[in-house]
Amino acid sequence: MKKNVGKMDRIFRLAIAVVLAILAYSKIIPANLALTVYIVAAVIALTGIIRVCLLYKPFGISTCREKNPF
Length: 70
Hints:
The protein has 70 residues and is mostly helical. The protein has helices spanning 7-25, 31-50. It comes from Aquirufa novilacunae.
């Protein structure tokens, strides 16, 4: 798959995932929502790690800088 998540987007996604996980772990997020928050954090972190966001695909969005072949 073609990467569509740029460097700043990647850093932002990983930071948000860490913050969400910490909030859920420290019980600031209610217990009945903790599992959902963990899953959302995992998906956000995964898209940051593999640099492919499936929600960007249908809209043609890419935050990656394309390298000029010339």
